[in-house]
């Protein structure tokens, strides 16, 4: 399964990288800069074809890519001749004005954002189904025993969080998102408690492993069996879809957190009481795979979005892209607040796996259409993330290059070749170090996935 996910992920990342480099390619051609090579993937080309003046390549390592413009290696020549500037030559990168170089650098991230907006617009135009959970909560303290911000705020199990800072939250994933993006910020909650509206305030803790805000709540799910995994513990015990489990080992259970609490005691045998067709039944269940949830699938809410008209879909796609962009920038700020970088920072291997995992999950739920929608949705997210990362003001990245050429534009004279070389070298060292750090975390992450089957 890990290999399948990585294979799907490579295809997805290849699309996102292609879009990014296509932005640089088109902008370079419009700016009068000659392009020598356009490659998807790094390393020695395994496929290549020259069309006109451009050689198109497929690299040995299919993560990443580049658009090689004529004149990028002129720094070396200027240093060797001890020149104080790179002589501008028509058709080369450094022969173009600083403004044109800035536009070429910005085009890659811009294309990623446009790509994300188009993909999200198509998704909203077609409409889509997704399974989610209600906005009803259970206090995590019922399972862990630890007092959380939710307890301190006065939340109770069974409450429905219907608004966070005035924003409507109809489902639990919206509740989780509203909390996750606001660690250590005071949030105003509107709660539906048995039909009565209650206003509360809560300050989420910062989860230093993920950088997300947490308040200690879990989704409330009724203990009605939605489906049974064949040959599982529950199937062998005779449980059927539609059964409502009311007691386990003489302990009342009304939601799945209660079930988790019973399983947390590590029983080898569970006496299950359930209601089926109005009659109470009992089943003896041998626990051989508690970690798999006994083979019971619990109910979820199936929601389908309406199909939007093309203009409305475009507006929604742009809005979603902007919102995700803001969330991505906010997430970057959390890196400087003492979080566990090994857990929070993903490298190419983990991102590739995640892209494939989302695609595989979508296929498992809804076939080929589910695969395409899930993968498209996640690729839009990754495309936005790549745009944000490339615009960081770091050497070698597009953002660092934009700053460099902006300074050159303000000064009115070109940057000294040795300063350019030092800037690029510092960038390579920094990026290489970050890649090694992320790669180590990715290996540990994938090792855990392989070890767990």
What's the helix and strand layout?
Elements: H1 2-30, E1 35-51, E2 54-69, H2 74-80, H3 98-126, E3 129-132, E4 137-139, H4 141-144, H5 149-153, E5 160-164, E6 167-168, H6 172-180, E7 187-193, E8 196-202, E9 205-206, E10 213-214, E11 217-219, E12 227-228, H7 233-236, E13 244-248, E14 251-252, H8 256-263, E15 269-276, E16 279-286, E17 296-297, E18 301-304, H9 310-333, H10 341-344, H11 348-390, H12 398-411, H13 417-451
Helix and strand composition category: alpha+beta
> What is the overall pLDDT average?
80
Could you tell me the strand content as a percent range? 15-25%
Tell me the number of structural domains: 3
Key phrases:
453 residues, alpha+beta, Pdz3 Domain, 4-stranded antiparallel sheet, 22% strand, disordered C terminus
Description:
The chain has 453 residues and is of the alpha+beta class. The protein folds into three domains: 2-127 and 373-451, no CATH class; 129-220 and 302-344, PDZ domain (Pdz3 Domain, Roll); 227-299, PDZ domain (Pdz3 Domain). It is built from 13 helices and 18 strands. The protein has helices at residues 2-30, 74-80, 98-126, 141-144, 149-153, 172-180, 233-236, 256-263, 310-333, 341-344, 348-390, 398-411, 417-451, and strands at 35-51, 54-69, 129-132, 137-139, 160-164, 167-168, 187-193, 196-202, 205-206, 213-214, 217-219, 227-228, 244-248, 251-252, 269-276, 279-286, 296-297, 301-304. A four-stranded antiparallel β-sheet has the order 6-5-7-8. The protein has a four-stranded antiparallel β-sheet with strand order 14-13-15-16. Strand 9 and strand 10 (213-214) form a beta hairpin. The radius of gyration is 27 Å and the shape is elongated. The termini are close together. The model is unreliable at 343-371 and 445-453 (pLDDT under 50).
């Amino acid at each position: 399964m890990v290999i399948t996910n990585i294979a799907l992920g490579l295809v997805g990342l290849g699309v996102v990288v292609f879009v990014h480099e296509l932005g640089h390619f088109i902008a370079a051609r419009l700016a009068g800069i000659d392009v020598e090579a356009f490659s998807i993937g790094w390393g020695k080309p395994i496929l290549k074809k020259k069309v006109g003046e451009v050689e198109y390549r497929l690299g040995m390592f299919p993560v990443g890519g580049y658009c090689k413009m004529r004149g990028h290696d002129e720094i070396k020549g200027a240093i060797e001749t001890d020149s104080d500037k790179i002589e501008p030559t028509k058709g080369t990168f450094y022969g173009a004005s600083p403004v044109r170089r800035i536009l070429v650098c910005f085009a890659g991230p811009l294309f990623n954002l446009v790509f994300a907006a188009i993909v999200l617009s198509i998704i909203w135009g077609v409409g889509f189904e997704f399974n989610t959970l209600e906005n009803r909560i259970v206090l995590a303290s019922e399972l862990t025993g630890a007092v959380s911000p939710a307890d301190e705020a006065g939340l109770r199990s069974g409450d429905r969080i219907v608004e966070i800072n005035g924003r409507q939250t109809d489902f639990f994933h919206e509740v989780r998102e509203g909390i996750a993006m606001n660690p250590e910020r005071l949030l105003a909650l509107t709660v539906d408690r048995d039909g009565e509206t209650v206003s509360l305030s809560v300050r989420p803790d910062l989860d230093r492993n993920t950088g997300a805000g947490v308040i200690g709540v879990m989704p409330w799910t009724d203990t009605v069996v939605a489906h049974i995994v064949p040959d599982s513990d529950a199937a062998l015990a005779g449980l059927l879809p539609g059964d409502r489990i009311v007691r386990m080992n003489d302990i009342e259970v009304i939601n799945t957190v209660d079930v988790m609490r019973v399983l947390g005691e590590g029983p080898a045998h569970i006496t299950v009481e359930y209601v089926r067709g109005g009659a109470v039944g009992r089943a003896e269940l041998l626990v051989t795979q508690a970690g798999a949830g006994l083979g019971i699938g619990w109910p979820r809410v199936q929601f389908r979005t309406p199909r939007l008209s093309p203009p409305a879909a475009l507006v929604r796609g742009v809005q979603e892209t902007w919102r995700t962009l803001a969330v991505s920038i906010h997430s970057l700020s959390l890196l400087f607040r003492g979080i566990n970088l090994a857990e929070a920072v993903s490298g190419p291997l983990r991102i590739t796996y995640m892209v494939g995992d989302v695609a595989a999950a979508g296929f498992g739920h809804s076939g080929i259409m589910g695969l395409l929608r899930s993968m498209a949705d996640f690729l839009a997210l990754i495309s936005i993330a790549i745009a944000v990362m490339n615009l960081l003001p770091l050497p070698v990245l597009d953002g660092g290059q934009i700053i460099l050429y902006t300074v050159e534009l303000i000064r009115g004279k070109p940057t000294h070749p040795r300063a350019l070389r030092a800037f690029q070298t510092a960038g390579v060292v920094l990026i290489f170090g970050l890649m090694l750090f992320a790669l180590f975390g990715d290996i540990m992450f994938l090792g855990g996935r392989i070890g767990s089957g």
